[in-house]
């Protein structure tokens, strides 16, 4: 899908989800401003919500879209939006926002070859959406924190195409 069309859909989805989130941003190829977009990626810190009989909050919005995978509550769910494009929705917490947002901005090759190899080289390991070193969980609240942790200059999203 053309970038401009995908951006409009992503902004609409973000607007629908925002009242149910502490924080929410568009990531992926839209954030990198790629001319062609295959899916919409959003990272969110949801407010507390219920599922099942007493469904509330973000679940009311997300569960109206066709599920491909990931039953709420979860760290990731994929849905098909009414416009026919896939939505990859990633859930983060305050202490791992920067890590999840950076990884989900991509590109996949950039995240794998640059970021992941960078933290392995520095002695970190990744588990459950967090970085650890010497058994201690490290908070990565902002993307800039991740780059500093890896002794790397911050790279603008549009330049993260590896």
Automatic annotation (TrEMBL):
DNA polymerase beta thumb domain location is 133-161
Which residue ranges run through the membrane? none
Which InterPro entries does the protein's record reference? DNA_Pol_thumb_sf (IPR037160), NT_sf (IPR043519), PolB_thumb (IPR029398)
- Give the record's keywords alphabetically: Nucleotidyltransferase, Transferase
The protein depicted here goes by the name: DNA polymerase beta thumb domain-containing protein
What is the species listed in this Swiss-Prot or TrEMBL entry?
A: Aestuariibaculum lutulentum
């Amino acid at each position: 899908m053309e970038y401009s069309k995908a951006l409009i859909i992503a902004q609409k989805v973000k607007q629908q989800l925002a009242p149910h989130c502490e924080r929410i941003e568009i990531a992926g190829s839209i954030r990198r401003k790629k001319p062609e977009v295959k899916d919409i990626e959003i990272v969110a810190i949801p407010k507390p919500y219920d599922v099942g009989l007493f469904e509330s909050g973000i679940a009311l919005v997300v569960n109206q879209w066709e599920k491909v995978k990931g039953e709420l509550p979860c760290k990731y769910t994929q849905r098909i939006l009414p416009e026919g494009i896939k939505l990859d929705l990633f859930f983060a917490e305050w202490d791992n926002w920067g890590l999840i947002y950076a990884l989900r901005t991509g590109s996949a090759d950039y995240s794998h070859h640059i970021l992941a190899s960078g933290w392995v080289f520095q002695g970190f390991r990744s588990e459950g959406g967090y970085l650890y070193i010497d058994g201690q969980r490290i908070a990565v609240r902002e993307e800039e924190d991740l780059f500093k942790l890896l002794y790397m200059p911050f790279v603008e999203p549009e330049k993260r195409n590896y």
